[in-house]
Amino acid sequence: MNLEILTPDKKVFEGEVRSVTVPGAMGSFEILNNHAPIISTLDDGKLIVRGSGKEEVYLIKGGVVEVLNNKVMVLAEGIIHR
After folding, report:
1. How confident is the model over 15-42, as a mean pLDDT?
2. Does pTM top 0.90 for this prediction?
């Protein structure tokens, strides 16, 4: 599935991933291929991107995630790559 991470300043990440774990407002949840369409607010916390054999961790400051047709779009208010 395709993941795009955006902040008000720039595009942080775009590419194919295996899964994404996001800090949802009601708790952390994982998004996998063929996930049902969803829009959720995000709290401050860890956003974990799992791709081909590697894992990247970002710390986000709130935002929104949208999943539709194997495309995940994360709109974060702020982000730090760890």
Report:
1. 95
2. yes
d(CA 30, CA 19): 7
- Pairing mode of beta strands 2-6, 71-76: parallel
Strands 19-24 and 27-32: antiparallel
Q: Which two tokens stand for residue 16?
A: 């194919």
pLDDT of residue 82: 81
Structure tokens at 69: 């047709």
Query: In which residue are the tokens 């952390």 written?
Result: 28
What single string gives the DSSP state of each residue in 44-69? Answer: SEEEEEE-SS-EEEEEE-SEEEEEET
In three-state secondary structure terms, 82 is coil
**In which region does residue 72 sit, left (phi positive, over 0), alpha (psi from -120 to 50) or beta (all else)?**
beta
Q: pLDDT tens digit string along 29-75? A: 999 999 999 999 999 999 999 998 889 999 999 999 999 999 999 99
Q: How far apart are CA 23 and CA 76, in angstroms?
A: 11
